[in-house]
Design goal:
The complex is a heterodimer of chains A (313) and B (323). Chain A is 78% helix and 0% strand. Chain A is built from twelve helices and no strands. Chain A is globular and about 85 Å long. The mean pLDDT of chain A is 84. Chain B has 323 residues and is α/β, with parallel strands linked by helices. Chain B contains eleven helices and twelve strands. In chain B, helix 4 packs across helix 5 and helix 7 packs parallel to helix 8. The chains are: A mainly alpha (313), B alpha/beta (323). At the A-B interface, helix 9 and helix 10 of A face helix 2 and helix 4 of B.
């Protein structure tokens, strides 16, 4: 087990190196740089050259990259060109928001999508099954930015039930926090929930046909235990794999959702960094998100082994 | 002796898009306690459907139509609901299915799966249930049962799994065991072991067995009485020795002729043709199209299972005049 974890972490190293290279060079392909963005209309050659020298942007790209990596290895993510705040501290400041957004979207999957998928499979071809299928198709096919806009229009502007944007920390005011997070997490979680629901349904249908389900019935197992302990547990194995992959989608989707609901999360931080050509901040946040994704996938694989005895690392 | 199980005019029909499928069409048989009844027939003749209907595993869905009665200790099982059947299944009537590779839940420990039967049906602590599970695993011949009970099905071989499934079926000491092709998926050597095991357990636990099989070797080995099934009907029923010595129904004769006999130079005579399509059965005897001694009457009317000799019943017009 520990050997497997160590191996997985070692495999993550080349992945992260690759991501750091892509993140570093990609942003530099975009026309304009930090200095043009900083100076804006006041741009002139001398000032620009001075600033570039100041930030080390006049050095060759390879040298810049190596300096950044060297600092990273020392645990120093660098400082934002704009605010001069440490990149690591801005990420840590924004992390709880994105984390909460993801957790809440994830909870919808667990509390709504999985039970709905299971019930749909048990009542195959019933009205409920058709409704679930329709929701599933809508969830998969509606883009999250459109859903977010509609949610704001209907529930914030028209009904006035939820705020249209902004954020309050959970520890400051839990209820206000949940009100702020409700719409964003639905907008973000809808498509993932739909995928999970479809997956649970088809996986359950497959499992319910298995001999050991018939065997459990022949043993006198009650319907409730049959479904939960004999069928759903087995059906969740592929669902967990899908959930792990979908976590990447949640991370990516949070960029747009945070922007629409003006939530101060990592996605919005990265977006601002891109518009400002704040190279260091952008590189840092992308690398951080990538590392998060690698860890989530490792966790998924470990949970997988926990449920399925046929997999041992 | 009072009959443990009495099946009267049992019918199981399935509604499908293509029409009504008469999988089991009016069969009658009885099983007395400690008897081993073998139900023999080709695949698709309705053997497994009969077993599942008795257990109440068929008949819950809208497209499944059940008729007749199944009297178990005098009570009709077909009128019981799912919850009432839950009390009987696994405790009084238990089952061993055909494929041991797929009959155990891969995510539960083997011991746990056996103990589960006890915790469902008896007031028993988890600890005691676990102990009993280990005992019964030892009884069915699984070495170092205590550590084996902690293993998962994929760590068991096919023969071991079938032993575990038999242990699971017998742990509550049921009065009736329905074994649906319990040896079909196993190697021949393991088959013999499993049959021996069933014989021994029958004597020890006083369990009656309905053995469903297509293998006449298994029938000869283990059963007291044989019922031959063809296209949803019972066509012949007799004690095992009588049946092998004096098979009367042309289908039974055909079955017996299609087993290879060691040392015999005679060519095997398979039964020509295929079993009928259950969607559109013609009037008359279902076997008429494949029968070597078919008569005009066979195409008009279906023969009923009738006594043709003491202890011997057959459904064939050939023996109608003898009565």
């Amino acid at each position: 087990m520990w050997r497997y974890i160590t191996k997985r972490i070692l495999i993550a190293i080349p992945v992260l190196i690759g991501i750091s290279i892509v993140a570093f060079f990609l942003i530099r392909l975009v026309p304009g740089d930090t200095v043009t963005a900083l100076l804006g209309a006041n741009y002139n050659q001398e000032q620009a050259a001075a600033l570039r020298a100041d930030y080390g942007l006049d050095k060759p790209l390879i040298t810049q990259y190596l300096i950044w990596v060297k600092n990273l290895l020392k645990g120093d993510f660098g400082h934002s060109f704009f605010t001069n705040q440490a990149v690591s501290s801005s990420i840590m400041e924004r992390l709880p928001v994105t984390f909460e957004l993801m957790i809440m979207s994830f909870i919808y999957c667990l509390l709504i999508a999985i039970p709905l998928g299971a019930v749909a499979s048990l009542k195959k071809n019933s009205l409920l099954d058709y409704l679930a299928t329709i929701f599933g198709l809508l969830g998969v096919s509606i883009p999250n930015f459109w859903l977010a806009t509609i949610l704001i229009l209907v529930f914030s502007l028209h009904m006035g039930w939820f705020p249209s944007g902004g954020f309050v920390s959970f520890f400051a005011d839990p209820i206000a926090n949940l009100r702020y997070m409700f719409l964003p997490s639905i907008a973000l979680g809808a498509s993932v929930g739909a995928v999970v629901m479809r997956m649970t349904r088809s996986s359950m249908l497959e499992i319910l046909k298995q001999d050991y389900i018939e065997m459990a019935r022949a043993k006198g197992v009650s319907q409730k235990i049959l479904i939960i302990s004999h069928a759903l547990k087995n059906a969740l194995i592929p669902v967990i794999t899908v959930l792990g992959i979908q976590m990447g989608y949640l991370l990516g989707g949070s960029v747009i959702i945070e922007q629409i609901f003006s939530l101060p999360g990592i996605g919005r931080l990265a977006l601002q960094a891109i518009t400002n050509r704040d190279y260091i901040l952008m590189q840092g946040s992308i690398l951080f998100v990538a590392a998060g994704f690698v860890i989530i996938n490792l966790l998924v694989d470990l949970i997988y082994a926990l449920i399925n005895p046929q997999i041992r690392y | 002796m009072r009959n443990l199980l009495e099946v009267n005019n049992l019918t199981t029909y399935f509604k499908s898009n293509k029409g009504l499928i008469k999988a089991v069409d009016g069969i009658n048989f009885t099983v007395s306690s400690r008897e081993i009844l073998a139900i023999v027939g080709e695949s698709g003749c309705g053997k497994s459907v009969t077993a599942k209907t008795i257990l109440g595993l068929i008949g819950q869905k809208k497209n499944e139509i059940i008729g007749g009665e199944v009297l178990f200790k005098g009570e009709n099982l077909l009128t019981k609901n799912y919850r009432e059947m839950q009390q009987i299944r696994g405790k009084e009537i238990s089952t061993v299915f055909q494929d041991p590779m797929t009959s155990l839940n891969p995510l539960h420990k083997v011991g746990q799966q056996i103990a589960e039967v006890l915790t469902i049906h008896e007031q028993i602590s988890r600890q005691a249930a676990r102990k009993q599970a280990i005992n019964i695993l030892t009884k069915v011949g699984i070495p170092s049962a205590a550590s084996r009970a902690e293993q998962y099905p994929h760590q068991f071989s096919g023969g071991m799994r079938q032993r575990a499934i038999i242990a699971m079926a017998l742990v509550c000491r049921p009065d009736l065991l329905i074994a649906d092709e319990p040896t079909t998926a196993l190697d021949v050597t393991i088959q013999a072991q499993i049959l021996d095991l069933l014989q021994d357990l029958r004597h020890e636990l006083k369990t009656a067995i309905i053995m469903i099989t297509h293998d006449l070797g298994v029938v000869a080995e283990i059963s007291d009485t044989v019922a031959v099934m063809y296209a949803g009907h019972l066509v012949e029923k007799a004690p095992v020795k009588l049946l092998f010595a004096e098979a009367r129904h042309p289908y039974t004769k055909g079955l017996l002729n299609s087993i290879p006999r060691p040392g015999s130079r005679k060519k095997l005579e398979p039964i020509p043709g295929q079993p009928p399509d259950l969607h559109n059965l013609k009037t008359g005897c279902n076997f008429a199209d494949r029968c070597p001694s078919v008569m005009a009457k066979c195409r008009q009317q279906s023969p009923l299972l009738k006594k043709i000799a003491p202890d011997h019943q057959a459904a064939c017009w050939l023996y109608e005049e003898e009565r």
